[in-house]
Amino acid sequence: MPSLQDLVAYLDQYLDASQGRDYGPNGLQVEGREDVHKVVTGVSSCHELFVRARKAGADAVLVHHGLFWDGMPRTLTGFQFRRVAELIRGEMSLLAYHLPLDRHAEIGNNSLACRAFGLTDLEPFGIHEGLPVGFRGRFPEPITAEELNGRCRRIYGQEPLAFLSGPDPVKSLGIISGGAQRELYQAIDEGLDAYITGEVSEWVMNVCREAGIHYLAAGHYATERLGIRALGEHLAERFGIEAEFIDVPNPV
Q: What predicted TM-score, i.e. pTM, was given to this entire model?
């Protein structure tokens, strides 16, 4: 069984966590017990996740969205205290990896999604703070816009908000999980037929209509389930520990 320090060191290296700017700290955020026999993975830090992880016997909780973000209050009061208190009561560590998990080429949210969509010739896509966070690729055989929408629904488990204003059939697709509305402009500049992210803003519809591109907003939470679940499975295989994904669904 790995020690907590061994697990953190491996994840920091495997995910190249020191590269690039992020909106909060990547790595160990709350320190728990020394030995890790079981890891619970989840998308977002919240009280429900921590309560369920404690009941499941977790030694560590591994998330995509951690507790601490730029611009947040630095005091542990109210709901933030209750979250941290649940971790401490359970002697559970909290590890968080945000943009490093989005851009990872093997178990990242976007590379996994591209392969699930059936894309080939994958390339990094979507420069953010000097580094790509998404991936793009091509369909071996063009698919209809209706099929693109259907695959999106099946892969992410919910109905996307879709502006299907691009070419039909669809030959190319770029994906950036989460709240990457403004990277739509990069998709347009690169001549992609379609772009998928998690969220959508009011201005997007008209831009898509006028630029002739498909845009599917599949949910911030839904587009970021893939990577954290795969990361837990990777750790289980590498270290021989137990990993359990706990879903706390969020329609946004």
A: 0.96
